[in-house]
Amino acid sequence: MARFVLHRLVLTIPALFGLLVLTFIMLRVVPNDPSAALAGENATPEQIAEVRRAYGFDQPLWKQFVIYVGQVGTGNLGNSIISNRPVLRDIADRLPATIELTFVSLLFATVVGIPIGAIAAVWYQSLFDHAVRVLTVAGLAIASFWFAIILQMIFAMELDWLPLRGRFPEGLAPPYHLTGLYIVDSLLTLRFDLLGRAAEYILMPAFTLSLAGLASIARFTRAGVLETLQKEFVHYAEAAGYPRLRIIWVYVLRNSVVGATTQIGLLFGGLISSAVAVEAIFDWPGVGSYAVNAILSSDYKAVLAITLVVGLIYALVNIMVDVVHAWLDPRVAEKL
Amino acid sequence: MKRRTFLMGGSAVVTAAMMGERAAFALPGSDELIWADDLPGTLDPHAVSDVPMQGYMINVYDTLYVNKQNPPKLVPWLATGHTVSDGGLTFTFKLRDGAKFHDGHPLTSDDVVWSFKRMLAIKKGPAAAFLPVLDPNGVTAPDPTTVVFKLKRLYAPFLAATPLMAILNRRLVEANVKDNDWGQGWLATNAAGSGSYIPDIEGYQPVQKLDLKRNRDHFMGWSDNTAPIETVRRRPIRETTTRVNALIKGDVDCTDSYLPPDQVERVMASKTATVSKDQSMRLMTLRMNNRKAPFDNLNFRLAVSHAFNYKGFIDGVLKGYAVRNAGPIPVNLWGAPQDLPAYELDLDKAKDYLAKAKAEGAPVDREIEIHIQEHLAQTTQAAQILQQGLRKIGVNLKIIPNLWPQLISSTAKPETTPDMWAHWVSSYFIDPENWIGQMYDSQFHGTWKASSWYKNEKVDSLLHAARGLEAKDQRQALYEQASRIIVADAVDIWIYNGVELRGISKRLRGFNFTPIGSGADFRTMWLAS
Question: What pTM value is reported for the model?
Fold first, then answer.
């Protein structure tokens, strides 16, 4: 297993390099020279040219890329060309918010998606099954920004049950910074009052973000359970007189969720990219809103850094999923 | 961690969330204002000079002169006044007594001189307005309250540009210089000002969160405001719907100043908020690349100018919240001829001009392109209205989404500049030079402002002469003359001068709109209980 993990980690390096090359090219082949923006609104062409020289934007693209990769190789992702701050610091400030949002969404998607998918399969062709099928199609089809606004209108504006926006109440100090994840930090410091506040704020954005994943996991689980229910060992267990609940819980579900775990890993990348819209609507201070700002201001170093960091997280989560996969199904581990 | 433990932990979080006592969600306190407008990308006022920076700078930094009221009036601020001599080349400013930086250090002419030298050295943001006419040796301080500027050549807009230049605390910035960077690394996330509000740097999160505390020792005193706001929390909210909802709910005290017209009635109908509607100097223009065929043909440009439904756009899309602006200077600024005939939608005329252009050999059958800024819906709507008009006269217009940085990069050369594109010219350098001067003088070719690639020697000489004259009435005559020529040449499509629409909480009082900073001058405001 350790060899497998190491192997996968090593393979991550060329994958990330490929990602870097692609992103750099995509960002810089279009006419996209930040010099004009940096030189100021009233700049003359000569002043713009001077800024271009000062930042090295007049150098051939390959040279700029080599210089950048050299920097990245030393762990320096550079400074934002707009704010002049190290982009890694900006990302480190915001990443915990996105990670927290993504994991809570994943938690929703899993703890709700797997049981409803399983129940729908067990009660195949029942009213519940039909309802789950309709709702999961809707969950996949509904645009997250539309759903977010509907939730806001109902739960924040009309009922006033949940906060409209943000991550934590204004003027209230967040939990002591241990991980930057407010829920985790509240639990670790036993500040259950703050846990409640953090949970209130994350509920709507996380649920919005989880919707498509929840639907996808439910469908996947339903299909997996239906397939497993047809297997011979299930028929054998039934014939042997095992209680039905035990058959489903111990044999069917365990065999069915192996596929769903792969789905969860794939979902993670999707959730991080979907988080951009959800973060904007709920004013969630994560890397999504930072990425949008960076793109709109052509801050290519910030965009590259976010791509790299998110790519790295995505790769690590997929490695973790493989490990869980192997733990659930020892046959997988043997193949590794 | 065992699976059971993990699941129990997860459930605990969800249960805590679901069962936690319903909170009284934090609403702004009675002495704090939550201002939901954009923050600048950096806190260094010499690094950028855009609209969000103006909203920050006017509160945290002081300048020699400031713009107040609407239309803006230039009034002395750090300076008590100025004199001009040497045929308009030497400006001498006298500073007020008693101005102090936030750290208590007195603000002297030495800080002013050093600030200008820094700005000229780093050549960013506001520097562009000064670099052509000022070099570092041209700024001197004969005594602690006098600053002298010796210009390289006569430049009438100089005084109007001084509000762009924040005066920094030399001692503080110099203590934080690294590798001769003029303190740029430090000032990007710190402050060294003397303004009415002091930023809380500890809690600052770039472009996301900044708290300001009132500077009780500000040199202007606070006698003109009996209940000034102690704390201003600046919280940009990217999404318009969320911003409007937050305002109506009472979570924040304002939206940005570009509230979509379709949200105005909703805000006005609420119990908690209203909309401040103020004519600005923000000019919306559809540019035409006069170097590219068929836009190099006057008759074709006239055809396009008559194919846009100006009234439909202003009354329908903008619900009347804009003022028709017939030419390249905002109608409420001197220099704009008041009798300028405006182009109107007239498809018969458009067809006639198109036929003439075709007869002159212009390739009018080719598909033309307009680039819009895809996150600004109004640019799409304007392009669609033009598309409808052009379709009726047989011209095919393709709409291409783009982003601001790409667009302004593309305007470096005539070949890469789009056939047409949509933008606004903002207002924080209040002089016709900011509009007509930089948009239609061919010396600015290669900048986004001059992206029509228009060249008319008569216009060049008028604009050159206008910026070199001291007397405002003489300058005004030249700008009016140049405007008439440019409009007759149908260089671009000038649509409207904006009415800025900012949703504001009903508890907010003393909101005084000035186009610079879009009314974000907190020193005049207070909160009703």
Answer: 0.87
When pLDDT is cut at 50, 70 and 90, the band that residue B29 belongs to is low
Helix (H) or strand (E) holding B422: strand B420-425
Burial of B211 (0-12, 13-18, 19+ CB in 10 A): buried
pLDDT band at B4 (very low <50, low <70, confident <90, very high): very low
Task: Indicate left, alpha or beta for A165 from its phi (over 0: left) and psi (-120 to 50: alpha).
Answer: beta
Lowest mean pLDDT among A1-15, A40-54, A116-130, A254-268: A254-268
**Which residue of A26, A84, A168 to mutate against B (max B Cβ within 10 Å)?**
A84
- Distance from the B464 Cα atom to the nearest Cα atom in chain A, whole angstroms: 14
Q: With an 8 Å Cβ cutoff, is B20 touching chain A?
A: yes
Among the partner residues B185, B245, B447, nearest to A84 by beta-carbon distance: B185
Secondary structure element (H or E) that encloses residue A5, with its range: helix A2-29
On whether any CB of chain A is under 8 Å from the CB of B447, the answer is: yes
In whole angstroms, how large is the CA radius of gyration of chain A? Answer: 24
Min Cα separation B124/chain A (Å): 5
Query: What is the gyration radius of the CA atoms in chain B, in angstroms?
Result: 25
- Chain A residues whose beta carbon lies within 8 Å of the beta carbon of residue B446: 45, 48
8 Å CB contact between B61 and B125: no
The runs of H, that is alpha helices, within B232-376 are 240-249, 261-269, 298-305, 310-311, 347-359
Q: Give A60-94 pLDDT, tens digit per residue.
A: 888 888 888 888 888 888 888 878 888 998 899 99
Length of chain A: 336
Nearest-CA distance B98 → chain A (Å): 32
Residue type, A302: A
Q: Which residue of B has its CA nearest to A30?
A: B406
Residue B137's pLDDT is 95
Residue type, B314: I
Residue of B197, B196, B169 lying closest to B183 (CA atoms): B169
Which chain A residues touch B25 with a CB distance below 8 Å? 160, 163, 169, 200
* A173 pLDDT above the threshold of 50: yes
Cβ–Cβ gap B42/A40 under 8 Å: no
Interface of B with A in 243-272 (CB under 8 A): 245-246, 248-249, 251
Q: Chain B residues with CB inside 8 Å of A295's CB?
A: 403
Q: Is A65 exposed, middle or buried (0-12, 13-18, 19+ CB in 10 A)?
A: middle
For residues A170 and B473, which has the higher predicted lDDT (pLDDT)?
Answer: B473
The torsion angles phi and psi of B365, rounded to 5 degrees, stand at -85, -10
